[in-house]
Write a structure and sequence with these properties.
Distance between the termini: 46 Å
Structural class: alpha+beta
Number of domains: 1
Number of strands: 3
Strand content: 5-15%
Helix content: 55-70%
Radius of gyration: 27 Å
Number of helices: 6
Order of helices and strands: HEHHHEEHH
């Protein structure tokens, strides 16, 4: 939750660093853990920043999946595609560091360091991210349609093959052929998912 003082400070920080206020959305404070070295503190703040950005995009992806998912596409497939997209997200493309504070404290026996970032989302980042995520969802839908078509084709081939072999055997192996056909029909979706 941002207070008016925090918002005012963020605006001043934006102006003081030569960043146009319209280039980023409201700044958010991301604070890393207290560490023993400055490098570890910076890495901790970067990790927290990545968690923050991915959390924001996880929520956006869930809303986009609900709005854009075709009815025939299983929810699990669309959600998995969105989760892969979020996991592969390049954090630096979707956030801009507006200000940074490195704080060192001397405790007498050792020093501790903590890094704080003030970050904002560039104005076009949300639109770029949503376009990329929509493209990922369309690719997942095409992939699911191809796999579904392969399963239907495999079922048709199994049906024709069973009927053909049954005709060749003149009905002597009907039960065996039907059992093999059922097993192949059950295996076809599993093979389509694994390939």
């Amino acid at each position: 939750m941002t207070t008016p003082a925090t918002s005012l400070w963020c605006c001043l920080a934006l102006l003081g660093h030569g960043v146009q206020a319209q280039d980023v959305a409201d700044a958010v404070v991301v604070r890393g853990e207290t560490e023993l070295t400055a490098a570890a503190a910076s890495a901790s703040a970067r990790a927290r920043l990545a968690e923050h950005v991915r959390g924001v995009w996880r929520e956006r992806a869930a809303r986009l999946v609900d709005a854009e998912r075709p009815l025939w596409l299983p929810q699990a497939v669309a959600t998995a595609a969105a989760a892969r997209w979020v996991a592969a997200l390049s954090v630096d493309d979707f956030v801009r560091v507006v200000d940074r504070q490195d704080r060192a404290r001397d405790h007498g026996f050792a020093a501790s360091h903590q890094t704080t970032f003030w970050v904002g989302e560039p104005a076009d980042a949300a639109a770029r991210g949503e376009r990329s995520l929509r493209a990922t969802l369309r690719a997942a839908a095409r992939d699911a349609a191809c796999r579904g078509g392969a399963v239907v084709g495999a079922w048709a081939a199994v049906g024709v093959g069973v009927a053909w072999f049954d005709r060749l055997s003149r009905g002597y192996m009907t039960r065996t052929l039907r059992a093999v056909g059922v097993l192949l029909a059950i295996a076809a979706p599993a093979v389509a998912v694994l390939v």
